[in-house]
Specification:
Blueprint: H1 2-15, H2 22-27, H3 35-66, H4 71-95, H5 98-123, H6 130-161, H7 164-196, H8 198-217, H9 230-234, H10 244-251, H11 253-283, H12 287-320, H13 322-342, H14 346-371, H15 377-381, H16 383-408, H17 413-445
């Protein structure tokens, strides 16, 4: 009933305003007063993910060269780095207005990119040397932290700017911007890595992240969303406790549920990541070939995601409801891991990786971000960031060391894939509960 009332109110507002572009309305159910905010959000996500996906195949090549047995140590290094970074980010959230702490965070990462560019260009140790190995490992850890923070901050800003009802209509289209950026970044690396060298691609990535900062600073004050938060976006710090991100998660059954959902997601992703690294490492001999095949897989993922997001994501979330939307990826994973256990070959692992990643970007991620639209504003930046960085990487650790433990007791790649099936089943049931709980909370807010 509350959703119907909210929908009628939006319709009444739209009837007195200019009609949004006809083509845009065919793609997404956007109100005229929301158009500018939606398009700036689209561009913001485009620049963030294009900057990241220029670097992602470089990180994957490091992972393959490192080998499955040593990957858990890189994941442990990433968790340690995230643990250090979280309170530093929380300090910025407490002290600065939203747009300012976002800009500071992104420009800090740009400075890091330039440091790696200098190392890879002017130090330039021979491939396979000790210097090359340690620079690669540092790059792996750093990019793993970078990826989590820049994306989490983006979606926190979105959850703070749009209501639950708007999120269900608009987040799918906004996510298209990220997918287009992913396609551009992956394609650039696939085509240019062997032409100009991977180090020079870092300059492109730094430029794209700076353009994302520009989008944050130009985000419209009147977004057609949380009007009561407009002034606070520009002027007032969020404040509160430095440790609120942790304490609020511990006290909330809903936030703990989201945390567990994310841990189960990352456990499955990590198991698949290790399986992929092992199979690709055996199928392709050198770093250039591995980088190219990883980039091509990523290109297929993002292209499939793009088509789904443009034509289906927003409609599927409304038609299926949030509970079934969150259950989709666990179901795909349950079936896929069973298939990988039966046929542990490149075609199967590549197909599962493509379906999981495309399903995650196209449906699961937008659905998960909707979960955060019904929590307090402070939690959108502190608790959400803690969940999507530290908890996420903790899930990686569980998956990484769990994989190592299963391998140590003698399970083959097939056996480990079968072990992921019950994880997917629990994940599925939790997704249904979270979707229903979000609906209940959204109704209470209206």
């Amino acid at each position: 009933m509350a959703g119907e009332v909210e929908g009628r109110q939006d319709a009444m507002t739209s009837s007195s305003a200019p009609r949004s572009p006809a083509l845009l309305q065919r793609l997404v159910d956007v109100r005229p007063e929301e158009v500018r905010a939606m398009l700036v959000s689209f561009a913001y996500f485009f620049f963030v993910l294009s900057g990241w996906f220029v670097m992602r195949p470089m990180r994957e090549a490091v992972a393959v060269a490192t080998g499955v047995n040593k990957l858990p140590f890189l994941f442990a290094g990433t968790l340690t780095a995230v643990l250090i970074a979280n309170p530093l980010f929380a300090t910025l959230v407490v002290r600065y207005p939203v747009r300012k702490f976002i800009a500071i965070t992104y420009q800090f990462f740009v400075a890091n990119i330039l440091v790696f560019y200098a190392l890879m260009t002017f130090v330039a140790p021979a491939e396979g040397s000790a210097g090359d190995i340690w620079i690669g490992r540092a790059f792996f850890v750093w990019t793993s932290v970078f990826n989590l923070f820049v994306v989490s901050i983006f979606w926190a800003f979105m959850a703070d700017s749009f209501r639950s009802e708007q999120a269900k209509r608009l987040f799918g289209f906004i996510a298209v911007g990220g997918t287009l950026g992913s396609v551009l970044g992956s394609a650039a690396t696939a085509e240019l890595a062997s032409v100009i060298g991977t180090a020079n691609l870092l300059l492109l990535s730094a430029t794209l992240i700076e353009l994302a900062v520009l989008c944050v600073m130009r985000f419209p004050d009147q977004a057609g969303a949380h009007e009561e938060n407009v002034a606070r976006h520009a002027e007032l710090p969020i404040g509160g406790s430095l440790w609120a991100g942790i304490t609020h998660v511990m006290r909330s059954r809903y936030l703990l549920g989201i945390s567990t959902f994310l841990v189960l997601l990352t456990m499955g992703s990590t198991i698949l990541y290790f399986e992929q690294a092992d199979i690709v490492g055996k199928a392709f001999a050198d770093r250039a070939a591995r980088t190219a095949v990883m980039a091509r897989i990523e290109l297929v993922v993002q292209s499939l995601t793009l088509v789904t997001q443009i034509f289906l994501t927003g409609r599927l979330i409304r038609w299926l409801g949030l509970a079934l939307s969150l259950a989709f990826l666990p179901f795909v994973s349950l079936v896929g891991f069973a298939a990988l256990g039966t046929w542990p070959v490149f075609l199967v692992v590549a197909s599962l990786a493509i379906l999981r990643r495309a399903g995650n970007f196209a449906l699961n991620n937008p659905s998960m971000e909707i979960l955060f639209t019904v929590i307090p504003r402070e939690d959108k930046y502190k608790a959400k960031n803690f969940i999507e960085t530290f908890v996420y990487r903790a899930g990686d650790q569980v998956g990484a060391w769990g994989f190592a433990g299963l391998a140590a007791i003698g399970l083959s790649m097939s056996g480990i894939a079968y072990a992921a099936v019950p994880i997917a089943a629990v994940w599925l049931f939790l997704g249904v509960w979270l979707g229903r709980e979000q609906g209940r909370r959204a109704a209470q807010l209206n």
